[in-house]
Amino acid sequence: MKDLDAFINLRELQMGGNELKDLVIHQDSNVLSNLEEIYLDNFTLNTNILQSIGVFASLKTLSLSDCGLIGPLPSQGWCDLKNLEALDVSENALEGMLPHCFSNLTSLRELDISRNQFQIPLSFAPFANLSNLKALLSNENKMVLEPPFYTSILKFQLEAISLSKCITSQQPNLELPTFLYYQYDLGYVDLSHNNFSGTVPTWLLENNTKLEVLILMGNSFTGPLSLPSAPNSNMSVIDISQNKLQGQIPTGICSTFPHLRRLFLSKNAFEGNIPLCLSGMKYLSFLDLSNNQLYGKVPEELITKSLAILRLSNNNLSGNVVPVILSANGVQHLYLDGNNFSGEMTNVDVSTFEFPYSLREIDLSNNKLHGKLPRWIGNASFLWRLDLSNNGFEGSIPMEFCKLNWLEFLDLSQNNLSGSIPSCFNPPNIEHVHLHRNRLRGPLSLAFYNSSSIVTLDLRGNNLTGSIPKWIYTLSSLSVLLLKDNHFYGEVPNELCKLHSLSIIDLSQNMFSGPIPSCLGNLSLPMQTKKTLTNGRTIPSLTGDGFTKTLVDYFNPSSYIEEVIEFTTKSGFLSYEGDILADMTGIDLSCNNLTGHIPPELGNLSEIYSLNLSHNKLTGVIPSSFTKLHQIESLDLSYNNLSGEIPNQLVELNSLEVFSVAYNNLSGSIPEKAQFGTFIENSYEGNPFLCGAILHKSCSKTDSPSTISTVSEDKGEDGLIGTYDFCVSFLVSFVVALLTIFVVLYINPYWRRAWFSLVGKCITTCRYSNVGKFLTYHIFKRYV
Fold first, then answer.
1. pLDDT per position as a tens digit, 710-741
2. Do 639 and 767 belong to one domain?
3. Residue pLDDT, tens place only, 31-60
4. Domain boundary among 156, 187, 207
5. 3-state secondary structure string across 578-626
6. Gap between the Cα atoms of 415 and 392, Å rounded
7. What is the domain-level CATH number for residue 103?
8. How do residues 490-524 score in pLDDT, each as one tens digit?
9. Residue-range definition of the domain harbouring residue 658
């Protein structure tokens, strides 16, 4: 067994609480008493370890983050660590109130109990005696109210506090914890996502002149944005986004916070023009005024050399956007989407401008731009992401776009683009291509041949023709293939099965024919693929060197452009993004001319969430192997020529929410157990030989094709009895009719004479007819 001092430094060693306890017992007491730091992050430990940890008398730092600790904290052992200065038990499943012995940790300076299930009183009484406490992180715990008579005097003066997501209820008029009124040394405050109401607490800034970071996002603060009476030259980050603030952005914000580096006022109800004074803030590097009601033009002076990220999305801004782009020297990320910018981007003399080579990302989507795509975009050779979707651009994709060698993300969807995709367009780093809902034509371009970096290829809703090329397998990273609503034809190639990263396939509304490749069942449909664009957010945390006060990267996303995938499932057209997109898997081959049986191998797609084979010409039975689709939520096999019964094994699909086999030739009874008891009648209509309570047809009275055949055979076996009855009935009827005629002729002489006269004429006619035929026959033979 390793010595304890060696063990403490082995971060990846798996050891439970009991093993550590045994190790502690057999060590030299001098070794135990001299240890000052223990880091067991990401271990699998038992909560009882905290009862054994008290033997480390000189311990100053204890980090047990993400160790699987559950239940309440023990009330002995670890509370004896009188020298402990930093404690991190974040990201566990600890719960309940903090024990009374917690007040014994009088040397504690840094405490991180984030992302647990503790109940923290609003008075923060458990921390009252921790006079040396400087940093407290309690994110994602639960703050609770106390009896009104309960009071406590807090002895600490914090420098940093983070209480994000501690109040999940929608309780109205919820005020800030009162102990904050008596804090004067705060440099970092995060009270985000708590539904606090009232006006913005300017007293918090006035009481704490050292305050550098104030995060109040995701609350319910109302009214105009008020500012403190005195300037604060230390303030670096202000985030008051996602509140209910109104009115204009005060122009005094620039002089009140002259050294501001990051300002977030998004998702409020601010109106009016963008304050011109913001252009004079020489330290401002990140400005987010998105999702408000701002109007007017974007001041060109706003684009300063210090500004790296400018986000003005989803306002009512208007005017010509080209000067804003061409003056963005120093700007790396420019988001102007969701506004009223209009005009042509080509009707500009760009020869007098030098394209800003700092630009890495441009988002002009959802505006009113029109005309042809600007060729001068090709000069942005270092551009990573470009989004011009949902405008009125027309014409072809310029050949100059082939110069964008660093491009990773391109979205030109929902315009009026025509022509073919340039064959030269093959950026070596391209990952996400969105060209859907245009008027592009021609076969699938060689532009994508051997593009091993492509993750998403979205070409839906165009006029593309031809077949899926055999070289599709060269797109080795392809995860999302969307070819819906085009004019593709031919068979679905087996080469698709070689794309081991595929997780979403949509080939619907085309003219594909032939069988479904059975090898599709070999796809692993990976759950974690690079389908999303990641955003990064760094928050303070406890480290071996103490609390991280430097917040240069407090909010520095790699991109605000999101990867959104639209896919038809659960009888609806849904959009997937973020973490949901990362987990989504599905195959849609509907509305084609596919024939043959459904391959039983598709039952191997155990991770698939949606499978749509409707509106084809498929025959045969529903494979019983579908019972292995354990994750499936939507299964649509309607409008085909399937026969046989619905396999009873499908009742084991507990995740199934939407199911349809309408308009086939299915027969037999409908399963009614588990999820199948929730499906509506429309799921089965158009199958005349299906029966069950949902169709209001009793299976005992319903004739299936097999039943009809049996009935016919039964009638055949009884055929002799039916013939005998018929003969007897006919003979009796004939005798009765004959006797009736004789009786009538005997009684009525007039009818008798008429009858004999009729019989005589018939005999004469028959005789002359036969004689004539005889003479004609002999004359014909004689002369012929």
1. 333 333 434 444 555 656 666 767 677 777 77
2. no
3. 556 788 888 888 888 888 888 787 788 889
4. 156
5. HHHHHHCCEEECCCCEEEEECCHHHHHCCCCCEEECCCCEEEECCCHHH
6. 5
7. 3.80.10.10
8. 999 999 999 999 999 999 999 999 999 999 999 98
9. 466-706
